[in-house]
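We store sequence with structure; for instance:
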Amino acid sequence: FHQVKDTTRTSVQMQHSAQLRPLHPSSSAPYGLYPTPVAYGGMPSQPMLVHPVPVLMGQPMAPAPAGCYYTATPLQPQLLHHAPPVQRCTPVSEVRSVVSTGAPRQTVATVDKVTMNVNGIQCTATNVDPRVTLNDYLRSQTYLKGTKHMCGEGGCGACTVIISYPSPVDSTQVDAAINSCLRPLASCNGMTITTIEGIQAKGKPSPISTKLGAYNGSQCGFCSSGMVMNMYGLLLNDNSPTAQRVEDTFDGNLCRCTGYRPILDAFKSFSVSESAASSVAVCHKTGNPCSNTCTDHDIEDICKTRPKVSAPPKAEVLIAPTDTQPGFYAPQTTTSLLSFIKGNQSAVKKYIVGNTSIGVYKTEQSVVAPDWFVDISAIRDLDIITIAAGSVIIGATVKINELIAFLTEQNTKQPVNVRQFFPQLIRHLMLVANTQVRNAGSIGGNLMMEHNFGFISDAWTVLAGVGTQVRVLDMNGYFTNTDLSGFEKMDMNNKILYSLTIPLKTSLQYFQSYKTMLRHVNSHAIINAAFRVELTETGVVKSQPVILYGGVQKYACRATTTERMLVGKSWQDPKLLQAIFASLQNELYPTIIGDNDVDYRKSLILTLFYKFYLYVLPPALLPSNLTTTAHHYDRPVSSGTQTYGTDPSEYPVSLPVEKLEAPLQTTGKAVYTDDIPNPAEALSGAFVNTTEASAHIVSIDTSDALKAPGVVAVITADDIQGANSVTIEPQIPAEWIEELLVSKNVRYWGQPAAVVIADTIRHAEDAAKLVKITYDTSKSPAPVLNLQDAIQSKSFFPNIPGLNPVGPFTVGDVTKGFKNSKYIIEDVIAVESQYHFTMETQTAFAIPQEDDCMLIHSATQWPAVMQNLVGRILNVNDAKISVSTKRLGGAYGAKITRAIFTTACAAVAAQKLGRPVRVTLSLSANMQSIGKRHPFQCNYRVGFNDDGKIQALQMTYYADGGSSLDSTYGIMDMALTTADNCYNFPNYSVNGIDCFTNLPSNTSARAPGCVPSIYFVESIMERVATALKMAPEVFKPINFYSKGQITPYGQTIDYYNLPTVWTGLLASCNYAQRAAAVKAWNQNNRWVKKGISLVPLKYGITFFAHYGCQVDVFMDGTVGITHSGIECGQGINTKVAQCAAYALGIPMGLIVINTTTSGAVPNADATGGSVGSGLNSKAVTDACATMMSRLSAPIAQLNQARREKGFKPLKLGFSSATPTPEEEAAVTATWKQIIAAAYGAGIELRTTAWLKPTAMTQPFNYNSYGTACTEVQVDALTGETQILRSDILFDCGISLNPEVDIGQVEGAFIMGVGYWLTEHLMVDQKTGELISDGTWEYKPPSQKDIPIEFNVALLKDAPNPVGVLRSKASGEPPLCMACSVLFAVNNAIQAVRADAGLNPVVFNPPALVTKVQQACAVTPALLTW
């Protein structure tokens, strides 16, 4: 890490003596310092420092006589001398002008290339740029595309691989799952790298991959490779993990599709019980202790083949810096390191072990670009960890997970007083980053992030809390010891953090640490704390305690005044607590300003200490209602049930068939758009985005960018041959047209203005930063940067004929209804945006072809509109544009219209340059430039009476469309036709207004418009129920629709399953008993409260789209199907294949689903609206029916011949839901015979089908129904929420594939959990810049955020008479029920407030920990015992 620091320090050295010992007579080793085990806490002997003038613990010494060497032996520490004065370091801005790039003084051999073993193949990389990552190399040079790239921050896990290497300490093999996107390629010298492709034995999938697919743990599949590799890494190190360890291990892998439950279930199938895990692992075949040498990959055998590692490389990697890239050096000894530092004193040096800091400080290299990367991970002295001389001694490069493992092992071996802090240290260190980062990142590196940047380090806080000291080594070999508390003041210029020392206490003390964060794992601390106190037998504070906080000020800070005040005080004095609070309030004030969370930090200073205070109190004195407050909540292993019915008569339809893509996705063989190999002449593009939200562009200066390495061109609006427009609707006025590349009028921060085209994506991204845009803001209006400002300033989109939203809808007499209401509530509710968080970002690959034709591989949900828009932009006929989409790594609406930016920009560049061009957005660029879910606001007025019946409801919706119309009108339509949910309001009015803001154009997002709409009406119902003091399970059904009633938008309520679903869920989830238990819990617990809620759902489904297909039967009997839908994780290909197999009466194994192209099925609509799977299946079923009609003649002829010979007629189809292989073989043979006869008869074996929307008198073809019940636990003192249990009963008709549909229900619900609890987009309200543009700031749910118990059932025996094969849609409706989580949280908050005599409060989501805690209105006066 950058060592430039503007601080000064003084320090005290430790005195040691030296003894002379003779060298071996034959030795010719130079004079030097060799530490003995005693001097360094039992560390094995190892040459530490070879120096012309040996240095011993800070003392320069004369050279040893010939034949002798020095050993260090500790004496009693005493004041020897102050370290030499240290001058202020040159500020960073000045360092750059005096940088030396000289090479280090050589002590050992060096090499300037990187050699490693990748999946058993020796690979050598030359001319390595130190900024190139292992992920870059694997994907671009070895073409191992199973390893994905997504965030580039170590936050998603899609890039996980295994690195194996000999330990620098004892050469034992280390196998670690790490993020390849963070690992510099230069740091991999001598390592063995294993990717997803390398764990398959002789082409047979790994049992891990097989199980993940079998458990339906792969939907879009983009995360699957990373999941498999992380599990492989766990099994390499623990072949008998507990279920808890399995769940803990996946804190670094994100999945947006599945909701995690099936992934965890798949991997927990490898786990053992706690008791079994504590015993010796036994081979499943021999019964002997496992030796980890088995090569059998049978799923029953957990033994694995470990990657083979080579001896440590003898040469140090040294890559000299150039004018365009920094240097890289990997010393293997402290001697080499110090020699290098001394020879490069003025250079900016970044010391790395795992290089994980770039996941946090993404712009670090551009702010202070290092001259040298110095990899110190191979230096043995820095990697040792041991217990000796009453201390735990930890080398600075010890990985965080290595420290956790060491403490865990010692916790079972050491006496109580020695290990008393270990459990708390382990628990807190497990909350640092994630498994992959902890496997690679060092403890010293984590501390240096706080030292250098003010990073809120959990390691710093918890280690300082136990009195840790640090040892620093300067370039002259001097050591300086200092307390970790205060280390931030030490100037680290040309020094190295050498080791840490945790003193082990001889007396028992109380110690506890705390951390609050946006989600339960893999999230930085908002605030953390560590407290330690020693009491006498009578409960008096014996010595100065430790009260330490991180996240309050720039560096972790101690409340020393309060600490000193506590000495001699009785902990059991009831008056002491308030005195402590007063002192803390006076002493500490937050100077870290986050997202308006200063009040939260102020409150947590007190509430966290309060928790510790209660923790220390004797159990006999601790009131029972505070017991849960005093202790950390230990989340149990998650579990769940999945319940559904099937219809065996429709085999294979309605059966839980494994997804067709699963074997490819879980083995890394599935090819996504960015995985398509590059031709040699291919180029890459990167956006140049605007940095103003409302301005005119004066000029775009590309001169510096064009001089950058690898740059070929910079594309601007001037290069567009056709229309510079991505607006679909032709009736949009010119002033509202959305441009592909902004030509003059900038509408939002992050708007694409140019595309840099270069030989590599890294060169393109680097050069994009060199493009200079000059703006004129004097003629532009002030930007409108949020929905509320848009409403206030009446920044509304115009009414456009043919595009106006439906509505307003009015029923009855609203004015009269309010007159007849005893009570009226009037309020405003609002919801924020949500980033889609597709694991695959926007990407496209354009390949120019002859005669102005263009082949485009686009990650889009709508190939037809991409074809049309690109043709218009290139000024080329649509027929010359072919758009191909095999699959998507997640979509959720993000890739319907927004895919045009990468698709068209790649095409424009390819047209101009005549070369293939790939444009793939980084996560940051994707979040900055691409729109998201629409924020909504609802202004409402509701009237009601004591009987619980709503008399009148009036609502006005406002939607934030961003900077263009895009899909906003349609989304408002969906919102207005969902606004009633399942309630019959006799007097009702709702209208919608679309708003313009200077933000990226918002777009469709899973259940667009419906998610906020359902939330709004449910919020109103919850509010009324609270006002009436009526239980929701009683109040809500009073207002339900009845069968046959008509909605305000003209929909007749028929085929009405809601009453069955509602009562069925109440019974299956034991709602009455649980609601009573929640009430009893809240009466008996002051600060940890529970809440429970019920949310019903009516969701309309419209067959709005044009879809088609082509079915081809080949001479060998195989069937190729090309349909118009896009596989994006929802299982559309699997359902299509099931329906085709049913319609043709053949095994699914004969069916192949082809890539979707704009030419094969032209002019089709987007895959979306939850109808893509059903309607494409319907089209295929129709085409198959046509095929069977054609085959009827040859079948009849064959049967006639068989009858004449006395044989039974040919039979297709199966009588059993589980046909035997013999039955499938027989049917296959019959089918081939039929096809051969048809071919011989000249029958066309290609059919097509086309579906179009039919004229309708009401908006929906049918309604889906569901109910969700969620129970949560809320810690009012921190705002943390645990979802204890969620139960869902959903009406899916007769599911085409219940395993797929269950996965859709779970995934949608968990996406909603993120929307309501953890996901928060922060926009700078002055500039319009999106601040939360990566995994560091934006937090979708993790594996520890899902319900601890998650039960999902599909309503049985509920055929849909108007659905495809009696089915219903499943992809979007369940997301609308996830607001049950928010209402449960709100109920818990109200329970907290009720205890304090406070009225209920309404706050807008998301329910972040900061907002929840503040809503609980915790004050110091309430913190008593």
Q: What stands out?
A: The radius of gyration is 33 Å. The chain has 39 helices and 48 strands. Residues 1-106, 295-303 have pLDDT under 50 and may be disordered. The first strand starts at residue 16 and ends at 22.
